[in-house]
Amino acid sequence: xxxxxxxxxxxxxxxxxxxxxxxxPALRALRKALPGARIALLVxxxxxxxxxxxxxxxxxLLYGDDQRNFIGRLKLSxxxxxxxxxxxxxxxxxxDAAFITYLAGIKQRVGYSRDGRRFLLxxxxxxxxDEKQVHQINYYLNLLRQSGIxxxxxxxxxxxxxxxxxxxxxxxxxxxxxxxxxxxxxxFGSAKRWFPERFAEVANWFIKDTNGSVVIFGGGxxxxxxxxxxxxxxxxxxAPESLLSLAxxxxxxxxxxxxxECDVFLTNDSGPLHLAYAVRTPLVAIFGxxxxxxxxxxxxxxCGRSIVLKxxxxxxxxxxxxxxxxDMRCMYAVSSDDVYHALKQLLPGNPAVFFDRDGTLxxxxxxxxxxxxxxxxxxxxxxxxxxxxxxxxxxxxNQSGIxxxxxxxxxxxxxxxxxxxxxxxxxxxxxxxxxxDHCPCRKPEPGMLLSxxxxxxxxxxxxxxxxxxxxxxxxxxxxxxxxxLVRTGALKESEHADFTAESLTEAVNFIVRxxx
Length: 516
What we know:
The chain is of the alpha/beta class. The chain contains 19 helices and 18 strands. Strands 3-2-1-4-5-6 form a 6-stranded parallel beta sheet, with helices on one face. It has a 6-stranded parallel beta sheet with strand order 9-8-7-10-11-12, with helices on both faces. A 6-stranded parallel beta sheet has the order 15-14-13-16-17-18, with helices on both faces. The protein is globular and about 70 Å long. The protein starts with 7 loop residues before the first strand and ends with a helix. 46% of the residues are buried.
């Protein structure tokens, strides 16, 4: 059992990008269980960017190639010893992870009992009896649960700064919308890769059908695949406004930000697959030699939308790097038609207007707990004009009073339901968490808007956010929507507002004019 009094904890992270993303829920659970502890994450340099802005981690320590030999490991263990860690959680399964923490003299070392390292662990956790049927996200959460930590499932989420989002948006500004991102590579081996000519066929269809554009992503070793897709595409579609190849030209943080700006994403089973669902970009994932039940995109509340395409051939999954039958039948069975139909299902197309609640739709009277204290602004009735213009109406509200124990969640739901019943709102989302939880759904983080996109097919770039707080303006900027400040609350000016209105009526008129 992990000592709950530990105030200086080392977490040995995993070595690959996809695995790193799948540890994010466990890291969040660890932070919640040990709010006062300092948590340091020891990871390989090429994975570290996944965790760079994560508020649940206090420090990232790099484990470089120069530390992989015995002398290097000894030096690293001495450095860790000087940090006086009282405990270590080993997400990495390797013998090496346990050996280094043992040499470092860390008092408590918790990890799965595997790879011949049981004698190096103070708390050797038995492997799940159904290990080969457990999704990797739950595999890491189970390690914490077996260590005495209440590890509730949550969807992986990668935190991006507003500056990162704006830089990515600026990099893609010349492209026609909507944008399809394509990741045609997979570092594990050729058995995981769909065919370049089929990626090209889908890209041709997408550009012609939507008048949009395609961005091809990939690592430095995958530029050849990207070039092959380029050669297979129609010559008249290889224009700067319709096709962009960034293979080999992005850092990991840039890749994450750019994927978050795509309207839909197509990928093999690879690291970028995990990056896509962790930034909530709708995605189509093609599986052949591997099993989506173990490493596929998660499903459920807050996960975003995804479709997995996998054939039913008897040899799949084989988990081989290269096809032993030399025929790639599992990949050939996934047709271009299958892929394009899936993309069309996921492509968001509906504009929406998102409204803050307290101070925007009704008076902000603090933590109200009774219906008689609810004072809705009279011009809320004007919002029905937006429905007639084809906009979805979505409420988004921070309700930390629930976590603080000052507001009844049932009451919050009743008020939100009132707006849906009486004022034709299509959905109403709220964040019940405490600000210290740093949850992805608390404004200005865009979690609620990304959930609404998944539920209602919202095109965020054609949408508006109306609110009376700076968090609402920053929320709009995070997703590329237009920000409308209404002076019905305390905030009267904002540099992030695209328009400032005196009332909801004035805000509605601005939106009806097309944001001009």
